[in-house]
Design brief:
about 240 residues, mainly alpha, 2 domains, two-stranded antiparallel sheet, elongated
Length: about 240
Amino acid sequence: MPWVQPCLLGLVAVQVWRSPGLAQIEALLDEKIEGVAILAPIVEGNRAEGRVDLSGIDFDKLATLFAAKPKTAAETLRQGAEDKAKQMAEVNPSRLDLVEKLEKLVDAYNAGSIDVETFFAELKAFIAELDEEETRPAREGLSDEELAIFDLLTRPAPKLTKAQEVEVKRIARELLEKLRKLVAAVDWTKGQQTRGAVLSEIRVKLNALPEEPYPEGVWDTKVDAVWQFVLSKYASAHRA
């Protein structure tokens, strides 16, 4: 059987058999890349297993593939970026802007607004942006879940001083620690009392947010955002 040159995506080298239909597939890719459906509900995604690792992409090999089959190479890179952006948004809903950015990039390519060379270069830059975002928890001194709550409390607003930022990080850590205890071992969403206890804890902890950047209207919005995040993330863990 004829095999094409292996390409590295992630940490595993994969050999792809050139089936009789591959030429037709590549021809379709040369026409357009179909839409990216990567919006997903927030599910538990904070474990190492199942994560999409783009650190092993061999861009030299991908560039060689690009020279021969540019649109096939672009699709390979687009798929890796799609999977990674989806996984990162599942962990932290504030990253949905990255999902939307990729969708707009693919839409622009499909519409003929950019050529394949520009598309490929933009995808490489986008993957670098994903890599930068993935290291942000360590730079902020937070876990992935703590950062998700911190982002919900600070994005897109309010703008905090350094002292306020330190305080909001402390609140995010303490809230997550308490929530883990409240939602552990039982399907807490089924009982009105247990649901009420979780929502009450969110309100109590967020009541310690600095008053000046969190007036009542902003505070209500943040309480609802954290509540929806907890419902989506921790309820799905018990359903799994």
